[in-house]
Design brief:
The chain is built from seven helices and 13 strands. With 280 residues, it is an alpha+beta fold. Bound molecules: glutamine.
């Protein structure tokens, strides 16, 4: 399983999120601390970030381990952003290698990452793929489960769903496949993330909000989202809710097994972007 991270807050150099922290994505690429499936994340990486005044993010992706990329340290030092989504990849066996398979996937103002697997790929995904228009299917950036999931999310965004609803719908559509579906996405203003089979943590404060597969340091404030939930974060607050109607998780998929995040008074009141699906 890959590791991913998203950030919203005051502009910061990328290195303060990715390589300065003792257990940041750079280190998670070879020594993750909470990864349940796979060992290293050396099959490429990607960083997406937003520049002021431009709603469409930039991306830097490579097909090699992040620790071997000679350009990453310079980029991480000088690029500053208020909104970032990054991932290190552990490619699933049988799926293509290469830059095009590395998250974040992008379209317009959106960035997307998937931490997980659709077992039985590609045959098991035929039903899901069949729900896409032929053009959407042919436009897949890579023949991976993650790229298919991104196409399914895009299709729902195109139909007017807000980011959290689009992610939730895709998880529900794929739930019968026994998949692991930790999805993470942003439009530069809101982060949405699902937990479905792997870990997810978040930390919020005046310094911004970070949502990540695992804590990047041992400082206080990290909280774990329970399995089978949808997390929505803005710089103003974090909201976590069960994915409606989801069957209970298998016993081994949640480290905490609880939903303590839901009733924590220290969490600022959520101010979530309006649900575009409810607009006329
Ligand atoms: N299955 C996806 C891929 O191969 C994601 C892998 C992962 O989460 N490790 O890219």
């Amino acid at each position: 399983m890959c590791r991913h991270l998203a950030y919203l807050g005051p502009p910061v150099p990328l290195r303060t999120l990715l390589s300065d922290p003792p257990f940041g994505l750079l280190r998670q690429s070879w020594a993750p601390r909470h990864q349940r499936h796979g060992t290293v994340n050396a099959d490429g990486f990607g960083i997406g970030w937003y520049a002021d005044g431009d709603p469409v993010p930039a991306r830097y992706r490579r097909d090699r381990p992040i620790w071997t990329d000679a350009s990453f340290p310079d980029l991480a030092r000088v690029v500053r952003s208020r909104a970032v989504l990054a991932a290190v990849r552990s490619g699933t066996e049988g799926m293509p290698y290469g830059e095009a398979a590395a998250a974040p996937f992008a379209a317009g103002e959106y960035l997307f990452s998937h931490n997980g697997v659709l077992p039985g790929w590609p045959g098991s995904a035929a039903g899901l793929a069949g729900t896409l228009a032929p053009g959407e299917l042919l436009g897949l950036e890579s023949a991976t489960d993650s790229a298919l999931l991104w196409a399914l999310v895009r299709s729902r965004l195109g139909a007017g769903l807000a980011l959290p609803q689009a992610l939730t719908e895709v998880v529900r559509a794929a739930e019968g496949l026994g998949a692991r579906l930790n999805l993470l996405a942003t439009d530069g203003h809101t982060i949405a993330a699902t937990t479905w089979g792997d870990t997810l943590y978040w930390r919020a404060g005046p310094g911004g909000v970070v949502v990540a597969s695992e804590p990047y340091d041992d400082e206080p404030g990290w909280r774990q989202a329970a399995d089978r939930t949808i997390l929505t974060a803005t710089p103003d607050g974090v909201a976590i809710a069960p994915i409606d109607g989801a069957p209970p998780p298998p016993a081994d998929t949640s480290e905490t097994g609880g939903t303590g995040e839901l009733d924590d008074a220290r969490v600022p009141a959520p101010r979530i972007a309006p649900n575009r699906s409810e607009q006329p």
